[in-house]
Write a structure and sequence with these properties.
By secondary structure, the protein is α+β, with helices and mostly antiparallel strands. It folds into two domains: 4-180, BirA Bifunctional Protein, domain 2, CATH 3.30.930.10; 187-231, SH3 type barrels (Roll). 26% of the residues lie in helices and 32% in strands. Helix 2 runs antiparallel to helix 4. The chain is globular, with a radius of gyration of 17 Å. The model has no long low-confidence stretch (mean pLDDT 91).
């Protein structure tokens, strides 16, 4: 399969009422900003979820953050290890990337459909990993992780969290996010087409899921869709 998000989008476009797609591998897995997501056969959990919202896309900017929280919760339930979250939706364990999420939104006349992709590194088994500090669940736990159980936990948690987000927005998730936020208090450099370069200290998120960055006496609110971010330590 090229990409679970793309495959699910094609199924929906063809009129098939499929909500969830799982794959053993992806030949064209995608991360944020078009980056390639390495998806070796049998080495990870690659899942996409479709949801139709009765809200416009402008109210769904925090959807990726909620998906990241659901993924972190699922890993904690199955592996007894809780990943941290790097804004907007990367899962980190001991400072190394273990997973990520991607929300593709399709707005239409005040409503919006979304396809949420989640990738979690389960066991690369000695294979060459991504070109960045990375890890997998087997390496971190020292034991085999059952991908079926992990998928079941993720599907359950996505269902619970997306329904709550649709009803109440980001507010019920703020404390959970703050508890897992690995960027707060750290120096960061961000850049985007609408913001230009911003260098400062990450100070959590606002009620729309935008990253708060303090730069001297100025504060910036950075939307996830257009920002490239790195720490500067």
């Amino acid at each position: 399969m090229d990409s679970t998000n793309l495959h699910l989008a094609r199924l929906r476009a063809a009129g098939k009422p499929v909500q969830i797609v799982l794959a053993e591998t992806q030949t064209a897995g995608r991360g944020r900003r078009g980056r390639h997501w390495l998806s070796p056969p049998g080495c990870g959990l690659y899942l996409s979820w479709f949801h139709h919202f009765e809200q416009p896309a402008g109210q769904l900017g925090a959807l990726g953050l909620v998906a990241g929280l659901a993924a972190a919760n699922a890993v904690a339930k199955i592996c007894a290890i809780t990943p941290g979250l790097k804004w907007p939706n990367d899962l980190l364990i001991n400072g190394r990337k273990a997973g990520g999420c991607l929300a593709d939104l399709s707005p239409a006349k005040g409503i919006c459909s979304a396809i949420i992709g989640v990738g979690i590194n389960v066991d690369f088994n000695g294979l060459q990993g991504p070109d960045q500090p990375w890890t997998d669940l087997t390496r971190e736990t020292g034991q085999r992780v059952d991908r079926d159980r992990l998928a079941g936990a993720l599907i359950h948690q996505l269902g619970v969290d997306i329904a709550l987000f649709e009803r109440a927005g980001l507010a019920p998730f703020r404390r959970r996010w703050e508890a897992l936020d690995v960027l707060r208090g750290r120096p960061v450099q961000a850049s985007g087409a609408l913001t230009g370069p911003v260098i400062g200290v990450a100070e959590g998120i606002d009620d729309q899921g935008r990253l708060l960055v303090r730069s001297g006496e100025k504060w910036f609110r950075l939307p996830s869709g257009e920002i490239s971010l790195r720490t500067t330590e």
